[in-house]
């Protein structure tokens, strides 16, 4: 399994730390130079970002654009090499003690036709299948991911999914994790997505405290909280309306399906824990 680490050239301390993290688990990786948001010109940003999908939406921030382009760079690299599955990490993560064991043998447990395997948790409620495949006699199960579970700091992605993600990324429509793991967006609905439970990866900011191992590092390639005013005032009201209707219908269908699966005892809502020990 090819492992890629997204890392800014200016973040050598993070690269050193991740070498230790991966080295401790005997995992080889390739560093991908992250796109620095500060290097993007205003003209480039205007041309690369899609108009907001509704009148209530906002533009992507420069940091979100840099993050998205960094992930797209990995997809394009993997596709150009004919790689069937890529494992992608950002550089502010923690790994579970048995992550190396699972990732080294991923080819043995990946379901046939799987497109996305979410390795991390964002500590948000999500819907997954109630039962799941036990992975290599560990506490981890592989469950179907049925609803949105944001974050893109650790995931496995198939060639088919990378092709679809690249096709949906020119121009950039939303933050990258919305596009990959947002159930309301069109890409997710056409892919076979799974969640490892408990998760084997988590970003440092979602570790509860220093006593629990939090280091106080924050992603240098993403910023989900900053916002910029919408500048695409000329976007067609009809287009906005159609996009909004499509999103509402997608959400309604998914909610109906999840409710049915829950009624049958085949799905559950839960916050995926991180397997720290």
Automatic annotation (TrEMBL):
It is an enzyme of class 2 (transferase). One of its GO terms (molecular function) is transferase activity. Its EC number is 2.-.-.-. CDD domains: Glyco_transf_25. Residues 2-180 form the Glycosyl transferase family domain. Keywords: Transferase. The keyword Transferase applies. This is Lipooligosaccharide biosynthesis protein lex-1. It comes from Martelella mediterranea DSM 17316. The lineage of its organism: Bacteria, Pseudomonadati, Pseudomonadota, Alphaproteobacteria, Hyphomicrobiales. The gene is lex1_3.
């Amino acid at each position: 399994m090819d492992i890629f680490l997204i890392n800014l050239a200016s973040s050598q301390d993070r690269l050193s730390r991740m070498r230790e993290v991966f080295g401790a688990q005997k995992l080889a990786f390739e560093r991908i130079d992250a796109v620095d948001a500060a290097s993007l010109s205003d003209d480039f940003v205007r041309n690369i970002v899609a108009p907001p999908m509704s009148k209530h939406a906002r533009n992507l921030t420069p940091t979100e654009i840099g993050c998205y382009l960094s992930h797209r760079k990995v997809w394009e690299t993997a596709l150009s090499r004919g790689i069937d599955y890529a494992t992608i990490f950002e550089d502010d993560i923690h790994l579970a003690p048995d992550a190396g064991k699972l990732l080294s043998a991923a080819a043995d447990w990946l379901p046939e036709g799987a497109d996305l395997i979410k390795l991390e948790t964002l500590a948000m409620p999500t819907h997954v299948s109630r039962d799941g495949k036990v992975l290599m006699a560990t506490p981890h199960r592989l469950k179907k991911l049925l609803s949105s579970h944001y974050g893109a700091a650790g995931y496995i992605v198939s060639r088919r999914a990378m092709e679809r993600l690249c096709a949906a990324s020119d121009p950039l429509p939303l933050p990258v994790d919305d596009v990959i793991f947002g159930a309301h967006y069109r890409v997710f609905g056409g892919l076979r997505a799974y969640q490892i439970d408990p998760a084997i990866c988590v970003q440092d900011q979602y570790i509860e405290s220093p006593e629990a191992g939090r280091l106080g590092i924050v992603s240098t390639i993403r910023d989900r909280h900053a916002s910029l005013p919408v500048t695409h005032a000329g976007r067609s009201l009809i287009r906005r309306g159609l996009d909004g209707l499509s999103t509402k219908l997608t959400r309604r269908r998914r909610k109906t399906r999840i409710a049915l699966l829950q009624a049958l005892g085949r799905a559950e809502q839960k916050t995926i824990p991180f397997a720290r020990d």
